[in-house]
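During the no-cost extension, the postdoctoral fellow (Dr. R.K.) reprocessed legacy sequence entries with the updated structure-token encoder. One reprocessed record is reproduced below for audit purposes.
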Amino acid sequence: MTRQTLQSLVRALVVSKVDYCNSVLTGVSAHLLDRLQSVLSATARLIFLARRSEHIGPLLHELHWLHVLERIRFRLCVLAFRCLHGTAPSYLAGSLCHAANVDGRRHLRLANTVSLVVPSTRRTTLGDRAFPVAAARAWNDLPPTITASPSLLTFCQHLKTFCFQTTFH
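Re-encoded structure tokens follow.
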């Protein structure tokens, strides 16, 4: 089996399962993230026929795969983009709010940006994992050049490049 065929199989059978609904994994324990990362690492080693003792960073870099934590952040930001542009389900889109739309914040410097309001939470263990909180924080951490993307395709390209650079450089 060629490397390209193996890579396609791994993407279809393993990576797609890791990525499915991974935005709900925001704020899970480091232990669970490590377990998911070990699945990605094992599949990368399988593709390259690498030993377990070899460092995984160069393999992930060559495959252009993000670490699990960055994958989760990527999905959150894509969902936030879709919410802000009206292509997400209404129950998600209604949970995000621009800082410029809040009465008390219209005259602040934030009103001229595309930042989102981060709702306050009572419990950091559960409240910070909620979509409106996690998505707003992830969105606000992005540079304005990415958040100002005109389409979903360009947004995803710029976001993947940004995440890749912060992970591997």
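The chain has a mean pLDDT of 89. The helical segments are 3-19, 30-48, 57-63, 68-84, 90-93, 131-140, 144-147, 152-168. The remaining legacy entries will be reprocessed before the final report is submitted.
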